[in-house]
User: Fold DNA-binding transcriptional LysR family regulator from Epilithonimonas xixisoli.
Amino acid sequence: MINLEWLRTFKSVYETQSFTKAAKELYISQPGVSLHIGSLEAYVGYTLFERISKKLIPTEKAKILYNFTLEPLLKLETAEQTFHKTTKTERSTVSIGMCFETFQFTLEKHIPNFDFNVIIRFGLYEQMFSDLDNGLLDLIITPRKINLKNLNFEAFSKEKIVLINGTGTDTSEFKNLIKENKIEEAEVWLKQQIWYSTAGDMEHLNNFWKANFNRHPDFKPNYIVPNICSIVRCLSGNSGFSIVPDFLCKKEIANGGIEIAWEGNNKIENTLYFGERVKNNVQNEIDKIKEIFRNENF
Assistant:
């Protein structure tokens, strides 16, 4: 059976590229680090590090092992810190679910000022509903709601899904087609342009296209990036199009890097909700989070 301490030592050596630095980080001796790595290499049957120019360079097998074990090790370290006996006053912990972009836009800048612990989780809304109902989340920010006796949903704002372009894009032909209500020609023109989308979620693009062109988009975006914030940064001042919630690019619109090319003849507007359990023991903290969202200019 693999030894957990071997893996913790491996993670430290991988990140520091040094037995000496890993030993200092883990508060063990350098021979102890060497012993752990040697034992791990014997267990997996592969060399994990090669010494080049006084540095330890991870092998391909080491990279694979690191990627497989990093997240579980980080979770174990978090658990260790959370449950370690301490004389400090216990702080409340609030677990919040939302999409990554909403977190960056609203909550990220406030995190250092909280007097309580916060755990942020990203994922699919269906899973968030389940986690909220089961007590794994205390609050979710969602454009959807469901009917469950134990859950309460409160509308607090709206988001509009719009077609945007970087200001390096010549949109004069497109705007003329829209003005003349030549929707089919406008669709053809758009499909010939540069497009950005996110890796796993094309819901905004699909919904906007179906609402305004009566079909699903039959083209592939040119650039698939990790999230909508990346799209906004890539487009700002450059050429190309994307379909996103308008509040995520309001700063870039104000700075002149992005324009709203079209809101659509059939506008798509989503209501945003706070979702929480009817009864919870961190209501004061939840109310503080909700106040931050209410103060944001969506």
